[in-house]
Design brief:
8-stranded mixed beta sheet, 14 helices, binds S-adenosyl-L-homocysteine
């Protein structure tokens, strides 16, 4: 057993099974052994590669989106651009570079905020952004951001926020937990918790025996904080993640280690733990603050924002090998059989502001 697994097993012996949300929290954020607190997850050397790490084009198109929305919102100054969960800081770096090319004065005036829960990743971000002429600030949570119009951006942040699972047995929904098997190994068990009935879909009472549903109040709370801030101080937000447009039944909790799926219980703290994001639930949270939610697939969005044209431009003066690499990166980001369909993008804006990239849908 690794050190964290032993500690989790001891905790379960003392206090009983952990909810999936508590298990995710320990695995990802334990100060001594947590995945985000101790590991270097990103890139070829790490466990998974995210869109901004695949290509600079991702951050460039996000910057163009942020600039368009800033203009559509009446070009407020001062303004803050806040990335939530910035990982290595690559997306913010690409956004600053692109914004400096579009409007150098604005790039100088923007307060760039990085909202990061992991002290270790905060240090990595400071390194990535060292030497940047932009104004950079770090915060632990959205509530600490300055009271200004904020343009939020987040890539693969909601999937890393813990969620809870419930299983339908004998006509009741009971919480799925992590407990101990007879031989002392971690195992999924039924816990005593029951879901808040108002969070269940209308047909939940007639769900099949053994159906599993995932509810993520902590994700809705993060969207609440974001949407509340936009509603009171102005701004907008754009979030990319893998997930589904409509809520559904099924277990999507997954562990990824060294670019392959791993057993969720086998190596706590050594693998990334995530689950599909329910975009309908996040849109509903934004709606409660009077904001409009716009959703598209990542592929449709990036192509509407000019991915093909950007790839063509970057490749024009490059050699054949580089051109091939750029085409490959664009394919990874947008092709339906790569990230294009699985990943979705959610923009939250004040009503009446039609953001680019969403085919005008409100
Ligand atoms: N956006 C980056 C990293 C994605 S991984 C990329 O695309 O490469 C998730 C990131 O969110 C990590 O930086 C992790 O430490 C951070 N994170 C997780 N929960 C968070 C929270 N509640 N608040 C702020 N950051 C969080």
């Amino acid at each position: 057993m690794n050190g964290l697994k032993e500690r989790i097993a001891a905790l379960i012996e003392q206090e009983g099974p952990l909810t999936i949300a508590d298990y995710m929290t320990v695995c990802l954020f334990d100060p001594a052994h947590g995945y985000y607190t101790t590991r270097e997850p990103f890139g070829v050397e790490g466990d998974f590669t995210t869109a901004p790490e695949i290509s600079q084009m991702f951050g460039e198109l996000v910057a163009i989106w942020l600039y368009s929305v800033w203009q559509a919102a009446g070009s407020p100054r001062p303004v803050c651009i806040a990335e939530i969960g910035p990982g290595r800081g690559t997306l913010t770096k690409d956004v600053i570079r692109t914004l400096s090319q579009i409007d150098a004065g604005l790039a100088r005036d923007v307060r760039f905020a990085l909202v990061e829960a992991s002290p270790r990743l905060t240090q990595v971000q400071k390194k990535t952004l060292a030497g940047s002429p932009a104004t950079l600030e770090w915060y632990r949570q959205v509530g600490d951001l300055p009271q200004l119009p904020v343009l939020f951006v987040g890539n693969e942040i909601f999937d890393a926020i813990p969620m809870r699972q419930f299983v339908h047995r004998d006509g009741r929904w009971r919480e799925r937990c992590v407990g101990l098997s007879g031989d002392g190994e971690l195992a999924f068990v039924q816990g005593p918790g029951e879901p808040d009935p108002s969070l269940l879909p209308a047909d939940a009472g007639s769900a099949e025996e053994g159906s599993l549903i995932e509810l993520a109040p902590a994700r809705s709370a993060l969207m609440d904080a974001v949407a509340g801030r936009i509603a009171s101080d102005g701004g907008a937000g754009i979030f990319f993640d893998y997930g589904h447009l409509q809520p559904g039944y099924g277990d999507t909790l997954q562990a990824v280690r060294r670019h392959a799926f791993d057993d969720v219980l086998a190596r706590p703290g050594e693998a990334d733990l995530t689950s599909h994001v329910d975009f309908a639930a996040l849109s509903a949270s934004a709606g409660q603050h009077g904001l409009a939610a716009h959703v598209a697939t990542q592929g449709d969005f990036l192509i509407a924002m000019g991915l093909r044209e950007r790839a063509g431009l970057l490749g024009r003066s490059a050699d054949a090998i580089t051109r091939e690499r750029i085409v490959g990166e664009a394919r990874r980001l947008a092709a339906p059989d790569e990230m294009g369909d699985l990943f979705k993008v959610l923009a939250v804006t004040p009503h009446g502001l039609v953001p680019p990239g969403f085919a005008g849908r409100d």
